[in-house]
C-alpha cells in the first residue's frame, strides 16, 4: 500500500533534475556523458562575492535573520529594482527567499484557492505547473510555437481567460526558449489584462541580465500593471550562485506580507551568509558580470551555427538565458539505430544513450515538439556534444 499523500503521488519529479541525476548515474558507471540538461552557469562565483561571504562568517552572521530578509539586503534589492528596472519597491514590498523557486512556491500558496486557473504560456519553466498544482490551482497551458518565437500573443491570452483565471506566470528571458518579450509585446498583453483587473501576474525575471539584445523590460513598469504584478528575481543565474539559494520578490505590500507569513511557518529567513553575500552581488555594477554574459552570447552563436548544420533541427534565435529549444518533431516516426522516435522524450533519451549527451525533453516544459539544450558548458564540450549528436542522427 502506498502510504504517501495524494499530493506527492500526483506530483511530477523535476524533469531537469531527473535528467541530471540520470546523467550522473551513467557517468559514475564510467560513461563519458556531456551534461547539457541543467540550468546552471558553469562559471565560478565572482571573487568579490566570495569575499563578502567569508567576511559574513567572520562577522558572526550566524543567527536567524528576519523572515523576509535583512533590512540592508532588502535595501540593496530596492536599489537594484530602481537601477535596473525603474521600479520603486519599498522594503515592505520585498521578500527574500531560499531561491526564486521558494519565491514562486510562496506566491502559489498565498494567492491560489482550489480550482483557480493559472495561465502558463508554453513552453514554461518546468516547475511552474507542479507548484501551481501543489497549491490546488489549475495550470492552463497556452501553446506557442517557434513561429511566434515561443511568445504568447494578446489574442491567445484573451482566449485563455475564463472567470476562474487568477494569475498568469511567465519568464522573460524565458527558460526554456530563451525568448525575450519587448516593451511592445508586454504592452500588448497589458491591453488584455487591463480589461481583467482581477488577474495577477508573476513576472519571473531571473535571466534578466542574460539578455543579448539588451533592454530588459519589466511588465510591472507597463501602465496599470504595477499593483498586480509580482516581480520575481534572484542571484542564481546572473551571479552563478545557484547553490547559495537566494531569490526575492517585489510585490504589492499585502502579497509580500502574506509570503512572509507563509515562509515564517515553513523555512524562516534564507541562509544568513548567502544573504550577506547577495548584498555584495547586487551592489556591484552590472558591468562586473558582463564577461559571463559575453561568453554566453558567443556560445549561443556557436551552438546555433553547429546545430543549424544538422538536418531536422528547426531553430529560432533565442535572445536571452542560456538555452536553445530546437523543434525536432521532424524525427517523429523515424527509427534511428533500432530505436523508434515517437516524441521528444524518446529523442532526448536517444541522445543520452547513443551520443552520451544529456538534454531535456520539451514535454517537461509543456512543448512536446522540442528539446532543451543548455549551453552553460565550455566551448570544447559544446563542440564535442553537438558533433556526437550529429553523428548519431
Ligand atoms: N525561474 C526560472 C525561469 C528558472 O530557470 C529557475 C532555475 O532554473 C528558477 C526560477 C529558480 O531559481 P532559483 O535557483 O533561484 O531557485
From TrEMBL:
Alphabetized InterPro entries for the sequence: Aminotransferase_I/II_large, AspAT/PAT-like, NHTrfase_class1_PyrdxlP-BS, PyrdxlP-dep_Trfase, PyrdxlP-dep_Trfase_major, PyrdxlP-dep_Trfase_small
Repeat is among the record's keywords: no
Listed GO biological process terms: amino acid metabolic process
PROSITE patterns from the UniProt entry: AA_TRANSFER_CLASS_1 (PS00105)
GO MF assignments: pyridoxal phosphate binding; transaminase activity
SUPFAM superfamilies, per the entry: PLP-dependent transferases (SSF53383)
E.C. no: 2.6.1.-
Required cofactor(s): pyridoxal 5'-phosphate
TM helices/strands, residue ranges: none
CDD domains associated with the record: AAT_like
UniProt KW keywords: Aminotransferase, Pyridoxal phosphate, Transferase
Short name of any one Pfam family annotated for the protein: Aminotran_1_2
Stretches assigned to the Aminotransferase class I/classII large domain: 31-389
Family statement: Belongs to the class-I pyridoxal-phosphate-dependent aminotransferase family.
Name this polypeptide is given: Aminotransferase
Organism: Arenibacter nanhaiticus
Classification of source organism: Bacteria, Pseudomonadati, Bacteroidota, Flavobacteriia, Flavobacteriales
